[in-house]
């Protein structure tokens, strides 16, 4: 049985419609003007890059089951798993099979602690997020409303919590969502703790669901319940003094929830690449933030059919100079794997190799600008084969190993990318943001 239920007041996504004239933010944000850094500069190389106020709440004394500082510093990857098995709807793309498929692939490819020893560390013991943690991003009316709705879900078996939208809930959804957010926060704690002791801390990877980047401050949206990456960003600021956070979102859909959460915040930069015209219709290039946050939002809608060449170009010409110029203390990644050519919900043609390159390059960029502090958060990805193979190859990239994408990717699926449209989109974004 299923029934519709609206939880709390839901906001209407910002369309950020395209303005009649191209608007540049260069002059308004004069403190950004004049940088011309190249990827591979000496920023942060050979020294421990720490923000002035960094502190660390991580303590192995509080929980003897937590990893030691030595274990953290020895690891190359630290990951957490929150599969939310009770949060499930049959035949729904965002189903409970997603995270187990990834874990199975990691085991099959010998990318787990069992096979890699100290190189890979699973963070198996972590606290769930609190109501206050969630309320750092979401309105309490929504949080308490969702908690109360669990009684209805328990009686009915399944409810819809987005009005006419696609986001569902079961009796375990509220608790599963707290666990997912807590898993991401714990990875931030661990990566920060390691970064105080090594120039090359492990990269975090949160294998969690429900996903989060569509969840707006007032409610759920687009399969997403709580904004996991946004909550982690606020946690990094409040618990660790990491003032400036850069969020890279390469999901095929625009992360409108994260966008809206930080649209007026000058200390959190949100950058999204996504398919132009795809759900939820937000993420226009003209949306660059508001008020004090103007200039710290960059949206790059890519034309349908964009693939590896388009993303590599966007990374080198958009993402790298933005990150270098912003000089963050931490990089968080909304890692959506639904831009894969085999994914059923959109029309880009990324490959497993594309995701390998993204993970490799983001890790290298984080080491350059913020002492290696970087955590990935699973977002979309609905073809279980392409999702699991791409996450596995991302792990190889983070370990510094060769890609095995050629064993999965089939060039026969690919077609010519619309590079003229891609070039025009990238050039427009560079003009607006003075890159």
**CATH homologous superfamily classification:** Histone deacetylase domain
Question: How many separate domains make up the residues?
Answer: 1
Strand element count: 11
Strand content: 5-15%
Broad CATH class: Alpha Beta
CATH architecture: 3-Layer(aba) Sandwich
Averaged pLDDT, please? 89
- Class computed from helices, strands and strand pairing: alpha/beta
Topology-level CATH name? Arginase, Chain A
Helix content range: 25-40%
Largest sheet: 8 strands, parallel
Uncertain spans, ≥5 residues at pLDDT below 50? Answer: 1-22, 27-50, 56-61
Strand arrangement in the largest pleated sheet: 3-2-6-11-10-7-8-9
Give the C-alpha Rg: 20 Å
Notes on the structure:
The chain has helices at residues 69-74, 98-108, 113-116, 131-135, 140-156, 173-195, 228-240, 256-261, 308-326, 352-370, 384-399, 419-432, and strands at residues 3-4, 77-82, 120-122, 159-160, 168-169, 203-208, 245-249, 268-275, 297-302, 330-335, 374-378. With 435 residues, it is an alpha/beta fold. The chain has a single domain (69-433), classed as Arginase, Chain A. Helix 9 packs parallel to helix 12 and helix 10 runs parallel beside helix 11 (384-399).
Topology at a glance:
Blueprint: E1 3-4, H1 69-74, E2 77-82, H2 98-108, H3 113-116, E3 120-122, H4 131-135, H5 140-156, E4 159-160, E5 168-169, H6 173-195, E6 203-208, H7 228-240, E7 245-249, H8 256-261, E8 268-275, E9 297-302, H9 308-326, E10 330-335, H10 352-370, E11 374-378, H11 384-399, H12 419-432
Parallel strand pairs: 1-4, 2-3, 2-6, 6-11, 7-8, 7-10, 8-9, 10-11
Antiparallel strand pairs: 4-5
Helix pairs in contact: 2-11, 6-7, 9-10, 9-12, 10-11
């Amino acid at each position: 049985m299923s029934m519709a239920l609206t939880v709390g007041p839901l906001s209407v996504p910002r369309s950020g419609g395209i303005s009649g004239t191209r608007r540049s933010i260069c002059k308004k944000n004069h403190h950004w003007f004049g940088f011309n850094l190249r990827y591979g500069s000496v920023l942060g190389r050979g020294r421990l890059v720490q923000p002035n106020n960094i502190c660390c709440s991580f303590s192995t004394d509080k929980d003897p089951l937590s990893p030691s500082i030595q274990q953290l510093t020895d690891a190359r990857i630290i990951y957490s798993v929150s599969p939310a098995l009770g949060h499930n709807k049959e035949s729904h793309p965002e189903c409970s099979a997603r995270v187990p498929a990834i874990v199975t692939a990691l085991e099959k490819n010998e990318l787990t602690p069992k096979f890699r020893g100290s190189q890979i560390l699973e963070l198996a013991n972590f606290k769930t997020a609190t109501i206050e943690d969630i309320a750092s991003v979401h309105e309490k009316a929504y949080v308490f409303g969702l908690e109360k709705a669990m009684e209805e879900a328990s009686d009915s078996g399944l409810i819809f919590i987005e009005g006419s939208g696609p986001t569902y809930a079961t009796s375990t959804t509220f608790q599963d969502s707290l666990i997912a957010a807590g898993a991401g926060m714990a990875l931030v704690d661990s990566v920060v703790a390691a970064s105080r002791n090594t120039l090359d801390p492990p990269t975090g990877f949160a294998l969690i669901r429900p996903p989060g980047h569509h969840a707006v401050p007032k409610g759920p949206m687009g399969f997403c319940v709580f904004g996991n990456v946004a909550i982690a960003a606020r946690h990094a600021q409040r618990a660790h003094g990491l003032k400036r956070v850069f969020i890279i979102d390469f999901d095929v859909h625009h992360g409108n929830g994260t966008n809206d959460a930080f649209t007026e915040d000058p200390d959190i930069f949100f950058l999204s690449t996504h398919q132009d015209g795809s759900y939820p219709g937000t993420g226009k290039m003209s949306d660059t933030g508001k008020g004090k946050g103007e200039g710290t939002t960059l949206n790059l809608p890519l034309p349908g059919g964009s693939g590896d060449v388009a993303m590599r170009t966007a990374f080198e010409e958009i993402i790298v100079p933005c990150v270098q110029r912003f000089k963050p203390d931490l990089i968080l990644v909304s890692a959506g794997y639904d831009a894969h050519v085999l994914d059923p919900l959109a029309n880009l043609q990324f490959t497993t190799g594309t995701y390998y390159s993204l993970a490799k390059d983001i890790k290298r960029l984080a080491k350059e600008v913020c002492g290696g502090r970087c955590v990935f958060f699973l977002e979309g990805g609905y073809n279980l084969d392409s999702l699991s193979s791409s996450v596995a190859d991302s792990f190889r990239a983070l370990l510094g190993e060769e890609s095995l994408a050629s064993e999965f990717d089939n060039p026969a699926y690919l077609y010519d990318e619309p590079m003229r449209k891609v070039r025009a989109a990238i050039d427009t974004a560079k003009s607006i943001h003075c890159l």
